[in-house]
Design goal:
The chain is mainly α and 131 residues long. Helix content is 59%, strand content 8%.
Length: 131
């Protein structure tokens, strides 16, 4: 029977040792759970701050986009009206200088005519025409 008691005592000692080991592991797990919960709370706070920052940035972006669109629209409205780019029709009659009966012509003097395309044409005046 003493053999049986020593065997039981040995088992009890082993079981107590295992129980202490399990208790130590359980304490470590509880500490780790507390650390993870703190990390979770910190992560939640950071996420809320980032969401708030995102909302502020979106509001600022919308405001900036509205201002930019308004400025572009104002600039477009301020542009002057542009004439049609179609070429003008050529005039059916061309301008011919009138004959002046009492005009004194200086040497080298010329008639000036502006053509429809914007170029300038000079025509010599003959000094002997009105003598």
């Amino acid at each position: 029977m003493s053999k049986h008691l020593t065997k039981n005592a040995t088992e009890i000692v082993i079981l107590q040792k295992n129980l202490k080991d399990l208790q130590a592991k359980l304490d470590n797990y509880h500490e780790r759970i507390l650390e993870l919960m703190k990390d979770k709370n910190v992560a939640k706070e950071e996420l809320q701050k980032e969401r708030q920052l995102l909302l502020e940035l979106e509001a600022e972006f919308s405001k900036q986009q509205f201002e930019t669109s308004s400025m572009i629209t104002k600039q477009i409205e301020d542009w002057p009206d542009v004439l049609d780019s179609k070429p003008l029709k050529k005039p059916e009659k061309s301008f011919k200088p009138k004959t002046v009966t009492s005009y004194v012509v200086k040497k080298g003097e010329k008639w000036t005519r502006i053509k429809p395309d914007g170029t300038v044409e000079y025509m010599d005046i003959q000094p002997g025409e009105w003598d």
